[in-house]
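Field: COMPLEX_INPUT
Field: COMPONENT_COUNT = two
Field: RESIDUE_TOTAL = 441
Field: MODE = joint
Values follow.
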Amino acid sequence: MPSFHPSDDLLMDYAAGSLSEPKAVLVATHLALCPTCRATVDAYESVGGALIESMNSDRVDSSLRDSVLSQLDEIEPERPTVMTREALAQVDLRVPEPLRGYLGSGLDDLDWKTRGRVGEWRILKDQASHTSRLFRIKAGAPMPQHTHDGTELTLVLAGGFTDHGKHFLRGDVATADETIDHRPIADADEDCYCFAVTDAPLRLTGTFSRFLNPFIDM
Amino acid sequence: MNGLNVTTAVPCPGVVARPLGLPRRSDIHVVMPVAKQTVASSDDVGLIEWMAAVANHRDRQAFARLFDHFAPRVKAYMRHLGAEAAVAEDLVQDVMLTVWRRAEQFDASKAGVATWIFTIARNKRIDGIRRERRPEFDPNDPALVADPEPDIDTTVDSQQRGAHLREAIAELPKQQAHLLHLAYFEDKSHSVIAEELGLPLGTVKSRIRLAMKKLKSQLAELR
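Field: COMPLEX_OUTPUT
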């Protein structure tokens, strides 16, 4: 079970449906790995249910009712799809849904943009207000030192890293706001894969920041 | 209060056969506060039975009742979130047809009917009004870490929970109730709410946290 979780207000925004898509992908992927946060989101959703139940209702035209009722016969019940064994063999179990659906392939088959010992793969590029990417950090290697505007959420998918004395493993979410100038270091025994979402562009503070510019505009 | 009526003229729900998989009402170890009016309204009992009838028997009449109960609420929800009347009605149609399509997937032990329909409506409006995908985990994903075995002693009927929650929300101070409405019905994250109200984010967070704490303590009384 994960030890580091998204904040309660992120979980509530996710339940209410007001979280941006990139952050919602990160929170939902954490939920796949964290029964505790799933229970919290369930509770927040039940608040949504109570609010909708007690809200003043709008008049609905009877033609809408007729239209809906007339369509019922055409609709087959939807049942959850069970994965075939072949499909299961193709799945990279390191990446739970919904993140897996955004990648289109397993972690090993991504076209990583590599710089030194850090590989990067951007997703959700259409969400211009956010920077969303996967990182592959070689065992024992540091991430480029950086601070950022806004908040950066990092979900560990495989391996682990240490940042400011805290050790993050699969399923853990590290939260760093603009006050933190941090330099996470991957565990020595295994490559670390993680998914990071920043709600602002990155700025680099290390000595070689100019050389690391590709991390901003890729 | 919040507009829920307790009527005594409704037929006793106990006479209807209990659908499989639903908690028996006699299993619920809840002492009902007699003085309060909104606890376990007859509506709640009806909703869950209508849902079961739709799921098990594709019961159109039960579905029509669910429609009459929820369509006006879902429409109001969509209107609150900025949908024009015509768009709101399209979304209502989409939501209610999804209820029909997925009725078998409704699990009364996990969520109340209103909560389940809220999640469908929320996802449809993200899709239809905000034009974004709603990312969700897949409960059948082989990578999912499963829930621990439920502790039966702390299982509270989801419908009871709903009734108590509504009551607790109605008793919240106005300021806190207002923040909840902003969070759920105006597509505003905590940080946007803070910006618009001219309050520090920390203040908004702590007020909402306070509201949630009150709601939780109400629910804890059920255990």
